[in-house]
Amino acid sequence: MLRNWPNGSLKNYRTIAFTDLSGSKLRPSLVIADNTRDVTVAFITTQFKWQEPTDLLLTPALNNGLKKSSLVRTGKLATLDKLLIRGRKGRLTIKEIGDLDQRLKLLFQLL
Fold first, then answer.
1. Long-range pairs for 106-111 at CB < 8 Å and ≥24 separation?
2. CB under 8 Å to 76, separation ≥6 — which residues?
3. Could you tell me which residues come within 8 angstroms of residue 98 by beta carbon, excluding any fewer than 6 positions away?
4. Torsion 79-81-84-87 (CA) sign
5. How far apart are the first and last CA of the chain?
6. CATH architecture designation of domain 11-107
7. What is the pLDDT of residues 50-85, one digit of tens each?
8. d(C-alpha 40, C-alpha 62), whole Å
């Protein structure tokens, strides 16, 4: 699924509205698809109380720029205009990309 992924790019900080549309702030996200004008991202959180079987656990590492253990919420996808990008934070390892690929297949029932 993610074999030709955008250079294995991990998370970019973007301004993202909360799901209840009550406001926005800079939030980490993982680029799933990169198109000419838009990107599709999965939100990243440190809140483990909402963990789902399809979420990917990431631990802090030099390659990803995370400060705390975090979850990639594959069930929380959004397509955003590239103008909302605030900067690249890091990238996933090849193993993490493979793990994410499996979780996306599970999410979309492609297994």
1. 106/53, 106/54, 107/54, 107/74, 107/75, 110/1
2. 19, 42, 43
3. none
4. positive
5. 12
6. Roll (2.30)
7. 899 999 999 999 998 899 999 999 999 989 888 887
8. 24
Q: Which two structure tokens, joined as six digits, stand for 107?
A: 């999410």
Q: What is the pLDDT of residues 16-53, one digit of tens each?
A: 556 665 666 778 889 998 889 988 989 999 999 989 99
Spatial CA neighbour of 69 closest among 61, 59, 77, 54: 59
- CA 76, 77, 82: angle at the middle one, nearest 5? 135
Domain parsing of the chain, residue ranges: 11-107
